[in-house]
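Model it.
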Amino acid sequence: MESWSPQVLIQKSQEAKTLAFCPYSNFRVGAAVLTSDGNVFTGCSVENACYSLAMCAERTAICKAVSEGYTAFKAIAIASDLEDRFISPCGACRQVMREFGLQWDVYLSKTDGGQKN
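Modeled.
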């Protein structure tokens, strides 16, 4: 467990973005979730030729955490390649986040590290 700040969480989401599998859209997304006890799990978007089978970065990170026994979360950071605007979780990701509580801090970032929460 390492110390975290919104900037550290955003940096981890930007690093996760580099691992995205997006041969169809070329739209990379990364996410980093912070558990209630301070652990961070990252995830990237994973596309599929069948669009509905794709996994968003947010759900990938959450599933990684849950598969390791973590179900209480504090925050999530999301990064993409968009330079002029922020992206936010899609409806499916919001539903998964809601499954694990209402008290999430959500940090959105641009490629230059600019953030919004």
